[in-house]
């Protein structure tokens, strides 16, 4: 079985729009959680979210971005970073059946699903819906919207598994290389942030309401006290290649992987177990930060 290594990384998130910004936020304990007037105006109980602080206008070609949801936009920008981080020339990955892409979105785009339904009910009907809503709304929109502009000719599909989507896409990409089916795979995922999706979690009591009026004391990364989850938007990408694939890559390989690990929380839930797992995870994260590794 072949060995897979990471040679490029890209990230757009609520705590930074590249590796350096995210690392600095983790070191300094900066939270990306902010107040959201949109959530408040929609009637939700939770008024905080982890939004991406980035104006994406003009960052992607108009003919490409018209098919994209926010999740696909974040994923596209992250993939650009991963390619640059790897020092990968276009001829090394474009139009190559041995180079693939596995990426997904856990929730698709409820914003555009709602938009499509509302537009259909309007007086203009189908004309108001337009031809670009499909790729924006579907959960596989991330892989669809990236494979074409990056000219990926290998495997190209999405795995959608809620919060584990990106992890499963990355793990499956590693397996494609281990089994010898692909030499290079771009892997990761993206999520958009909108009240249309957040309200569903708020209705089940899964979003935090404790920090609505105390925003200066909002949750910070790696805190041990868990009140509830928060609504985030992000995209993370890694570029994997076979250990034996001699591509023209400028940078050296970083983390190495021989298997996809089982999630540490995949056991019976209990408050005591959560506290123990978070404490253990926190120290592992801090060790990575001290080594200046993401």
Short description:
The chain is α/β, with parallel strands linked by helices and 294 residues long. The protein has helices at 19-28, 37-41, 62-65, 70-86, 90-93, 110-121, 126-129, 133-137, 141-147, 165-178, 195-203, 271-290, and strands spanning 4-12, 34-35, 48-50, 99-104, 156-157, 184-191, 231-232, 234-242, 256-257. It has a domain at 4-17 and 52-193 and 233-261: Thiolase/Chalcone synthase (Peroxisomal Thiolase, Chain A, domain 1).
Provide an overview of this structure.
It is a single chain. With 294 residues, this protein is an alpha/beta fold. The protein has a domain at 4-17 and 52-193 and 233-261: Thiolase/Chalcone synthase (Peroxisomal Thiolase, Chain A, domain 1), CATH 3.40.47. The protein is built from twelve helices and nine strands. The protein has helices spanning 19-28, 37-41, 62-65, 70-86, 90-93, 110-121, 126-129, 133-137, 141-147, 165-178, 195-203, 271-290, and strands at residues 4-12, 34-35, 48-50, 99-104, 156-157, 184-191, 231-232, 234-242, 256-257. A six-stranded mixed β-sheet has the order 5-4-6-8-1-9, sandwiched between helices. It has a three-stranded mixed β-sheet with strand order 2-3-7, with no helix packed on it. The radius of gyration is 20 Å and the shape is globular. The model is unreliable at 219-231, 247-252, 261-280 and 282-294 (pLDDT under 50).
Give the count of helical stretches. 12
The whole-angstrom Rg is 20 Å
Main β-sheet: number of strands, strand sense, barrel status? 6 strands, mixed
β-strand percent reads 5-15%
Structural class: alpha/beta
Number of strands: 9
Query: Kindly, what is the distance between the CA atoms of the first and last residues, rounded to a whole number of angstroms?
Result: 26 Å
* CATH topology value of the domain at 4-17 and 52-193 and 233-261: Peroxisomal Thiolase, Chain A, domain 1
- Characterize the overall form: globular
Output the CATH homologous superfamily of the domain at 4-17 and 52-193 and 233-261. Answer: Thiolase/Chalcone synthase
- Look at the structure and give the CATH class of the domain at 4-17 and 52-193 and 233-261: Alpha Beta
Mean pLDDT, all residues: 81
Strand order of the largest sheet: 5-4-6-8-1-9
Order of helices and strands: EHEHEHHHEHHHHEHEHEEEH
Helix content: 25-40%
CATH architecture designation of the domain at 4-17 and 52-193 and 233-261? 3-Layer(aba) Sandwich
Contiguous runs where pLDDT drops below 50 for at least 5 residues: 219-231, 247-252, 261-280, 282-294
């Amino acid at each position: 079985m072949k060995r897979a290594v990471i040679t490029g990384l890209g990230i757009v998130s609520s705590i930074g729009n590249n590796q350096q910004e995210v690392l600095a936020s983790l070191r300094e304990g900066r939270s990306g959680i902010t107040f959201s007037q949109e959530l408040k105006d929609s009637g939700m109980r939770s008024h905080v979210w982890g939004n991406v602080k980035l104006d994406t206008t003009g960052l992607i070609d108009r003919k490409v971005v018209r098919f994209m949801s926010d999740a696909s936009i974040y994923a596209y920008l992250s993939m650009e970073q991963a390619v640059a981080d790897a020092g990968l020339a276009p001829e090394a990955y474009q139009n190559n059946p041995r180079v693939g892409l596995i990426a997904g979105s856990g929730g698709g785009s409820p914003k555009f699903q709602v938009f499509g339904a509302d537009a259909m009910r309007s007086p203009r009907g189908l004309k108001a819906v337009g031809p670009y809503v499909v790729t924006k709304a579907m959960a596989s929109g991330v892989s669809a919207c990236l494979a074409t502009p990056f000219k990926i000719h290998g495997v190209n599909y999405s795995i959608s598994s809620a919060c584990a989507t990106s992890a499963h896409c990355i793990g499956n990409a590693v397996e494609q290389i281990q089994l010898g089916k692909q030499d290079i795979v771009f892997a990761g995922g993206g999520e958009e942030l909108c009240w249309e999706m957040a309200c569903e979690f708020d209705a089940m009591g899964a979003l935090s309401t404790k920090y609505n009026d105390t925003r200066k004391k909002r949750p910070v990364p790696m805190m041990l006290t868990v009140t509830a989850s928060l609504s985030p938007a992000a995209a993370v990408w890694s570029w994997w290649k076979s250990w034996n694939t001699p591509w023209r890559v400028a940078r050296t390989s970083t983390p190495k992987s021989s298997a996809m690990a089982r999630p540490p929380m995949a056991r019976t839930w209990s408050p005591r177990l959560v506290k123990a797992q978070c404490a253990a995870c926190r120290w592992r994260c801090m060790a990575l930060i001290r080594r200046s590794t993401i």
